[in-house]
Amino acid sequence: MSPLLVTVLVAAGVLVLLLVAAAVYIVRAARSAQARLGAILRGERVLKMAGGANYSGKEGDAARLRGNGILVLSPTRILFTMWAPKVTLELPLSHVVGARVEGVFLGRAAKTLVVTYRNKAGAEESCGWVVPDADGWAKAVEENRGKQA
Fold this sequence. Notes:
PH-domain like, seven-stranded antiparallel β-sheet
């Protein structure tokens, strides 16, 4: 067997092992996020959920946090639990000013659900998620934020 063939086979084996390890990590991280979310919701009704949501970040946030996780709309709030790091973001619907869909958000060209809300100081901020059916999400957030007024 030629040294080149041995090198290629070893590299392919290492790549397969890395892919399997990454898949196991992702499954475990997703299950952990789901468990954390269940503990936070404690039986609260879920109106809409996206298990593969990608958080694009918050406008004006220099240390932009981004990542995949679970996005949930309940009758009173929007929750996003990241797979890793173990971070949960919560937006009460009573603080939400509006929801829309943008084709580009924070420099990322993707159909993104953008939610604008008032922070604790009363200033408006926006954050975004790439989710399937972004239009449906924006409509659901708008319909339910109106019920919080």
